[in-house]
Amino acid sequence: MSRRRSRRLAVPGAEQGVNAFKAEVMRKEGYAVDPAHPDDVKYEVAKSLGVPLTPGDNGHLTTEDAGHIGGKIGGSMVREMIRLAQEKLSRQQP
């Protein structure tokens, strides 16, 4: 039996900003992103990785396959956040 994890953000109302950031990062990674549905980029990422992700129930996916998709998206977002933080810190240096 699969469990659905709650995907609530720690900051109420931040979802729109996070989705816009995800869209921007994944666009820079070369993926086509629909600004109205940035979360749908996961299907394009899955296709590029050869993972059979489809809208609806994906109970057939292995944890490894799901992790590849999330890792590609999340890893790209984390790298960009680190780059932005380093850039901000470098501007603060005297």
Task: Spell out the key features of this protein.
94 residues, mainly alpha, 0% strand, globular
Structural class estimated from helices and strands: mainly alpha
Provide the low-confidence segments as ranges: none
- What spatial form do the alpha-carbon principal axes imply? globular
Radius of gyration: 15 Å
- Quaternary structure annotation: single chain
What percent of residues are in strands?
under 5%
Instruction: Characterize the largest beta sheet: strand count, sense, and whether it forms a barrel.
Output: none
Spatial gap, N to C terminus: 56 Å
Task: Classify the helix fraction into a percent range.
Answer: 55-70%
What series of H and E elements makes up the topology? Answer: HHH
- How many DSSP-defined strands? 0
Q: Please tally the helical runs, counting DSSP H or I stretches of 4 or more residues.
A: 3
* Overall pLDDT score: 88
3D structure, described in words:
This protein has 94 residues and is an all-alpha fold. Helix content is 56%, strand content 0%. The chain has three helices and no strands. It has helices at residues 15-28, 41-49, 63-92. Helix 1 (15-28) crosses helix 3 and helix 2 (41-49) packs across helix 3 (63-92). One of its GO terms (molecular function) is double-stranded DNA binding. This is Alpha/beta-type small acid-soluble spore protein. Residues 52-72 are annotated as: Disordered. InterPro entries: SASP_alpha/beta-type, SASP_sf_alpha/beta. Pfam families: SASP.
